[in-house]
Design a protein that fits this description.
The structure holds 2 protein chains of 2 kinds.
Chain A: H1 12-23, E1 43-47, E2 50-55, E3 64-71, E4 75-82, E5 101-107, E6 114-121, E7 129-133, E8 141-143, E9 147-152, E10 155-163, E11 178-185, H2 188-232, H3 244-247, H4 255-259, H5 268-287, H6 296-300, H7 306-319, H8 321-327
Antiparallel strand pairs in A: 1-2, 2-3, 3-6, 4-5, 5-11, 6-10, 7-8, 7-11, 9-10
Helix pairs in contact in A: 5-7
Chain B: H1 3-17, H2 25-42, H3 48-61, H4 79-89, H5 93-104, H6 108-112, H7 116-122, H8 125-136, H9 141-148, H10 155-165, H11 170-182, H12 184-195, H13 198-201, H14 213-230, H15 235-250, H16 254-261, H17 263-278, H18 282-285, H19 288-318, H20 337-349, H21 356-380
Helix pairs in contact in B: 2-3, 3-17, 4-17, 5-10, 5-15, 5-16, 5-17, 7-19, 7-21, 8-9, 8-19, 9-10, 10-11, 10-21, 11-19, 12-19, 12-20, 14-15, 16-17, 20-21
The chains are: A alpha+beta, B mainly alpha.
């Protein structure tokens, strides 16, 4: 009976080692490897009342820009980058924040009043949300419930309403000054899974398109080849006393059928060819081994004698369709 | 000069100018690793063309105080650092190797049976599964992608992608890729047997049609159009690959083809091997991530082989003329080793079943598939 699980014939110590690697110590303790080597380091520039951060987010090789602007009262004083410290990240997955956090300082707001923060970037998508961190709030991490709109093609923007002394204001005081700490959040695992499917099927699509292209070009080339062969074929001369139509194979007959002899018409030459092929096959079976695979055909071929030469000639002639037609 | 000052001078020379007192345990270990790879390359002939220079690179770079992988005071790179910087960091060597590979490759079996392209795509399953698996172990997305591509079993693609996304893992990734490629005849057969029945292993495939010289000549151009239009990020690799193949099939630049196949390929192989080996300095290599990569690499190869065979099984559900599922394992690239493994496995169950040319189709598709997967990853991080 065939062993269905022969796969497990791998040495037990290899399997054991792999299991140990996967299950012990538990995944959580691999955190020591979770060194943040992709720390985004934003650089800020100011143009009028717009502050723009330029940074290379996690899992990106090229830089992106994020623009901050205040509307509806108050003025944007400053924007700074804030690293997510360990004590801040207990409630969230740090990897969800690919661009880290930003601290936005707004002044000149009517005490207790509201300002509108606009954060725009081509880096954001429709599924991006803006999250706020406030260490003084009972729930330190909050979804800003920002309006996610697309003001122009290729740019997504958040419109966040912030209230002086409100839950998003880190200083917590009603003093006309708002400090907002937060950043854009995308689900890390959602992104990973999405990527996994899109990219894997993307490879299928690319190779599938190439396959279709090759199938079509293959058909074209085969047709051209067929046409060329028929154009190049010498005129068929019927044997004496026979009409031209009798000499030609039927159009409906596929070429393979034309070249195959009927059982009762086996000529001595064909018998010789079959005999030679069998001899070669037998010789090969004796000599073939793993080591000989690279040079089997030459190593196993017997010395050419009359029979072999005749057989080879027969095989070669049978390959030529034109020859076949003339023969018929 | 007093005797004591002479002793002091000797001591100072010993400490600052010789390697012996500066040799660390880690370096000693890496010297042994280098020797091990030299042994595998020379005595066992496992991918000797690459493992020999890689092994020597590991060996030489782990001697303390050796001015090989650093920078001089003037800021110029030292010898091996220069090879690495201009060859690998600038992404020149992997692309030149692809030029040589293109010049060596006969796409006939793939052109004759384009359906096998799908097998090459299916065999990339491990690349993406490993990509996700490594993330559980704290790898970053870029690192995970560079580790995942090991399963594509394509050395230059692995090096190209890793140099782009996670250069600090280059040594481990390249070494894992080449080591497992050398071990394809050990890794794949158990999976092939596990996933197929005896009857399936005996399936005979129809002889491939003849491919005209004109078809072969146009293939690199057609393939470039489709691949580069769909994944522009892979243009450097695919462009050079197809250029090499075009030179070969055009038959008008035999000198160039010969150079690309032989001299150029040999030269860049030396520089590539030594540079990759040189990245494996003890302080950088003896960490958890590089060591884990070897475990993931093996898993990756296993899943890729599984994916290739599974794809053939799925295709067989729809095909009138069934394909022998053993050729699915050749979809992992590793040209031509994995095709040969398919062939040898097939012969074990039917000595008249010659699968080699049929397996070359998915094998070549695997090269294109792994480059496409690499292009997908590059595009993802742009």
């Amino acid at each position: 009976m065939e062993k269905r699980f022969a796969f497990f014939q791998i040495k037990p110590w290899v399997v054991l080692m792999l299991l140990v690697m996967v299950f012990w110590p538990p995944v959580a303790s691999w955190a020591f490897m979770d060194e943040d080597i992709e720390k985004p380091k934003p650089e800020f520039t100011r143009q009028g009342d717009i502050v723009t951060a330029k940074l290379i987010p996690r899992a990106k090789s090229t830089s992106v820009t994020i623009a901050f602007q205040i509307k509806g009262g108050g003025r944007l004083v400053d924007v700074k980058g804030v690293e997510i410290a360990k004590n801040m990240s207990s409630e969230i997955n740090k990897k969800d924040f690919r661009s880290e956090l930003f601290s936005v300082d707004v002044a000149g707001v009517t005490p207790g009043g509201e300002a509108i923060l606009i954060v725009a970037s081509p880096f954001f998508t429709k599924s991006t949300s803006y999250w706020i961190y406030n260490k003084n709030s009972p729930t330190q991490w909050m979804d800003a419930s920002a309006e996610n709109t697309r003001p122009q093609e290729g740019t997504q923007q958040f419109i966040i309403r912030i209230k002086d002394g409100g839950p998003f204001d880190s200083d917590g005081a009603v003093d006309g000054h708002i400090t907002l700490i937060g950043g854009p959040r995308d689900s890390f695992w959602g992104y990973v899974m999405g990527t996994l499917f899109i990219r894997f099927f993307g490879v299928f699509i690319v190779l599938g398109v190439l396959m279709i292209g090759m199938l079509i070009s293959g058909l074209i080339f085969q047709k051209i080849g067929k046409k060329r062969r028929s154009d190049d074929a010498p005129p068929i001369i019927p044997p004496a006393g026979q009409r031209l139509t009798d000499a030609m194979p039927s159009v409906k007959d596929p070429p393979e059928m034309v070249s195959q002899p009927e059982p009762d018409k086996i000529t001595p030459e064909l018998a010789a060819a079959i005999g030679t092929a069998l001899a070669m096959h037998g010789a090969f079976q004796q000599k073939a081994s793993m080591k000989d695979l690279n040079n089997t055909a030459h190593a196993c071929a017997p010395e050419p004698n009359f029979w072999a030469m005749d057989g080879r000639r027969q095989i070669m002639s049978d390959r030529s369709m034109v020859f076949d037609r003339i023969k018929k | 000069m007093s005797f004591e000052s002479i002793l002091e001078l000797i001591k100072s020379i010993l400490i600052t100018q010789t390697g012996i007192p500066n040799l660390t345990g880690g370096q000693g270990f890496m010297l042994c690793v280098g020797l091990l790879f030299l042994y595998l390359a020379i005595a066992k002939e496992y991918e000797p063309l690459l493992l020999l220079p890689i092994g020597f690179g590991i060996f030489i770079v782990n001697f303390p105080l050796a001015p090989l992988m650093g920078y001089t005071e003037q800021g110029n790179p030292e010898l091996l650092r220069a090879f690495f910087k201009y060859g690998v960091e600038w992404e020149i060597i992997p692309c030149v190797i692809f030029l040589g590979l293109g010049a060596m490759t006969d796409f006939g079996p793939l052109i004759a049976n384009p359906k096998t392209l799908l097998v090459g795509a299916g065999a990339q399953l491990g690349v993406f599964i490993t990509y996700m698996g490594t993330l559980f172990f704290g790898f970053t997305l870029k690192e995970a992608a560079s580790v995942g591509i090991i399963g594509g079993a394509d050395g230059p693609t692995t090096i190209y992608l890793t140099a782009k996304l996670a250069p600090h893992l280059l040594g481990a990734n390249a070494l894992a890729a080449y080591s497992y490629m050398a071990m394809v005849p050990l890794i794949q057969p158990p999976i092939m047997r596990w996933m197929t029945t005896k009857k399936q292993r005996r399936i005979r495939m129809r002889q491939l049609r003849e491919v005209s010289a004109r078809e072969k000549l146009l293939f690199p151009l057609i393939a470039t159009v489709f691949i580069v239009l769909l994944i522009p990020a892979v243009a450097p690799l695919m462009g050079m690959f197809m250029l090499g193949n075009l030179m070969r099939e055009s038959l008008v630049v035999k000198r160039l083809t010969d150079t690309a196949q032989n001299s150029l390929m040999n030269i860049v192989t030396i520089f590539l091997g030594v540079s990759v080996g040189a990245t494996m300095q003890a302080d950088k290599f003896l960490q958890w991530k590089p060591l884990l990569i070897f475990g993931f690499g093996l898993l990756d190869f296993i899943i890729c082989t599984f994916g290739g065979i599974l794809t053939v099984h799925i295709m067989n559900l729809f095909l009138k003329e069934k394909m022998n599922p053993l050729i699915g394992s050749a979809g992992v690239s590793a040209v031509p080793m994995s095709a040969r493994v398919s062939h040898v496995e097939g012969l074990k169950y039917d000595p008249d079943n010659w699968l080699l040319m049929h397996a070359m189709g998915p094998n070549l598709a695997g090269v294109i598939g792994s480059a496409a997967a690499a292009g997908m990853f590059i595009a993802m991080f742009q």
